[in-house]
Each structure stands twice: as C-alpha cells, then as structure tokens.
Design brief:
Radius of gyration: 38 Å
CATH class of the largest domain: Alpha Beta
Number of helices: 12
Number of strands: 12
Order of helices and strands: HHHHEHEEHHEHEEHEEEEHEHHE
Shape: elongated
Helix content: 40-55%
Bound molecules: 3,4-dihydroxyphenylalanine
CATH architecture of the largest domain: 2-Layer Sandwich
CATH superfamily of the largest domain: Bira Bifunctional Protein, Domain 2
C-alpha cells in the first residue's frame, strides 16, 4: 500500500474514533492544520518535477478531499447526536411564571383620537389629513380670512421667513385647512374628520405651542343646522358615554361659517367636581356652523348646489374633560410617572362599549 493510502487509512480511523467535537477538531488540526500531515504533503508538490507532480498531485489532493469529507460527515453526526441527547434529556417547564416585561402606555391624546375616529367611523366619516406646514391661502384666505382680517392676529401664527414672491408658509394654526384640501381633492358628498397637530405661539396652563384639534366636515345637498346638531349630540353622547349629555348652541362668529355656533355641554356638580351630564352649568366644547358660501366657492364648488357644516375642537381639551387632567403642559412633558398614571394599557384599552346608538 502506498504511503498516501496508509496515511489516509490512519486519519480516517482517527476520525472514526473521535467521539467529541473537540477530539474531532484535534484530528483535523493534525491532518489539515498548518503543521498537519496532509498539509506537509501538499507543500511537497511545489518541489516536484512536472512529471512527478502529475502522478502525486491527484493522489495528494484526493487524500485531502477524503479527509475533509470524512471530517464534515463526522461533525454532522456528532452534532446530531448532541442535539438528540439534549432533546431526550432537557425539559422546559411551561408552568413557570414568566417574568413580567415592562410595557409602555397609550398617551391620552392617542387614546382620545382613536375614540373619535371610532365614533365618527360609525357615522360614516372617513379620516382626512393635511400638512402641518401650510400656506397662507389654505390656512386663512380660502377660509374667508383675508389678509386684513382681525382673526389673523388672534391666531398667534408661527410664520416661516418669506422666500421671494411665493406665498408665506406657516405652521397651521388649526385643522380647518384640511376642509379646503378635502373639498379641492374630492367630489362631494364629503364626510370627513381631520385630527392632527396645530401650532400657536402661546404657553400657559391651558395653552401649549403645539396642541391637537379635530375638524369635521360634511358637504352634501340639502344639509342644514339640524344635521349638525344631531351629529354633535350623537358624537358627544358616545364620547362621554352618557345619555344625559345636553348641548347648548350659542350664536357665534367664525369667518368660515355662516351661521356660526359655539357648542356648550352641560355639567352637574357631584361632590364638588364637575361631571359631564345634566345642565347645572355649561362648558364650551367646540366651534361649528354651516360652511360659508365663500369657502365652498373658493374650493371650486357651487354653493347653490352644495351645502354643509363644519366643526372643530381641541382633542387635548376633550381628553382633559373626559379623563380628569387639569394641566395641559403635562401632556407634552414626557414624564413617565404622568404617562403611567394617565396613560392606557396598550393591551387593554377601554373601548366605547355603547358605540353610537342607532
Ligand atoms: N378653526 C377654529 C379654531 O381653531 C375652530 C372651528 C370653529 C372649526 C368653527 C370649524 C368651525 O370647522 O366650523 O378656533
């Protein structure tokens, strides 16, 4: 038998005898490692004459291949044996209590926005969105608030520096521009709500430079104030989850509605606290009205055919009224203690059990 064949038999026997991954690795290093026996033979190829190499080359390479394959096969065998051994002996105790993983809470603003979307979805309203960086026209002019209008001063607007002749860009001061964008983008009939962030340069216990509003818009034929009242009443009853919610509509003024109404909701005083329901006192909750003809016209629709109503209110304020928080600034401080106290369990959020009654 040639030397190569003898060496091969020896190494394959050693592989066969290796009964642990470490023993196998030792055999591998002995044969294929830098100083290994097979590596030494491979090195001799360099010094051989071409004729000799033609004979020895295939034999030595064949040896290397046989050893490499032998090791791979044995390695897989050993690994399977180890796994089988573990499967046969290890037991997982599924009855052990799992350590509780900390989890966050749903912010009251997110919770209330979800509730609002749910209530209005029941009434056939879709959710619309618009940009927070808005232009002058959508935020003011199209809503019948021309340049000289005093309402512009009331909005404490954050303007961007003017660039050239382009119209001034700003951070939207209300969600009402979404009314304009929706009317320009889709054909009536329209029923949308638009929740989102709005910005005003204002800060105290009840005002933050960023806060949340929700806008509502209905455009159809023959829409009148009665539809508005029913919609708001149905919404507020579902939101506060009480049937005794009483509304008071007061004449008011908004440039983009005519007539305009401010809506108050009645409260009772229970143990010194105001509770929504009854009519011992009144709290203003939203602004609304019939969409002004000029606004409908600005969006390219004929106000003699299409009418509608709109409303807008603060989401943060609704959250404060429903869940009893009194400092708006805490909403945006990111204080974990506040969030744990007022936030909602993400896996167990309260749902509006009643929904919108038929
Ligand atoms: N945009 C008004 C504000 O920010 C709120 C508002 C009032 C919206 C009347 C409306 C509306 O759609 O009809 O104060």
């Amino acid at each position: 038998m040639s030397d190569i064949a003898t060496l091969q038999n020896q190494i394959l026997a050693a592989i066969g005898a290796a009964d642990t991954p470490d023993a196998l690795e030792a055999v591998r290093i002995d044969a294929l490692g830098k100083q290994g026996s097979v590596s030494a033979l491979l090195k001799t190829l360099g010094q051989m004459s071409p004729e000799e190499r033609q004979v020895q080359g295939p034999a030595i390479n064949g040896l290397r291949e046989a050893v490499t394959n032998g090791i791979a096969t044995k390695k897989a065998e050993l690994e399977t044996a180890i796994l089988n051994q573990r499967l046969a002996t290890e037991r997982l105790d599924m009855t052990l209590p799992a350590p509780e993983a900390p989890h966050g809470t749903v912010h009251p603003v997110s919770q209330v926005m979800d509730e609002l979307a749910e209530i209005f979805a029941d009434m056939g309203f879709a959710v619309a969105e618009g940009p927070e960086i808005e232009d002058d026209w959508h935020n003011f002019s199209a809503l019948n608030i021309p340049d000289t209008h005093p309402a512009r001063a009331m909005h404490d607007t954050f303007y961007f520096p003017r660039s050239g002749e382009e119209q001034r860009m700003l951070l939207r001061t209300h969600t009402s521009p979404v009314q304009i964008r929706t009317m320009m983008a889709q054909e009536p009939p329209i029923r949308i709500i638009a929740p989102g962030r709005v910005y005003r340069s204002d800060s105290d216990a009840t005002h933050t430079p960023m806060f949340h509003q929700i806008e509502g818009l209905v455009i159809d034929k023959g829409i009148h104030l009665g539809h508005l009242k029913w919609t708001l009443e149905t919404f507020l009853k579902a939101f506060f989850e009480r049937d005794d919610v009483v509304l008071r509509l007061r004449p008011s003024y908004f440039p983009f509605t005519e007539p305009s109404v401010e809506v108050d909701v009645g409260y009772s005083v229970v143990k010194g606290k105001r509770v929504i329901g009854g009519s011992e006192g009144w709290m203003e909750v939203l602004g609304s009205g019939m969409v002004h003809r000029k606004v409908i016209e600005a969006c390219g629709l004929d106000p003699d055919i299409w009418q509608g109503f709109a409303f807008g209110t603060g989401v943060d304020r609704l959250a404060m009224l429903k869940y009893g928080m009194d400092d708006l600034r805490a909403f945006f401080d990111g204080d974990n203690r506040w969030l744990r106290h007022y936030g909602f369990d993400a896996l167990d959020v309260p749902t509006l059990s009643g929904g919108v009654g038929a």
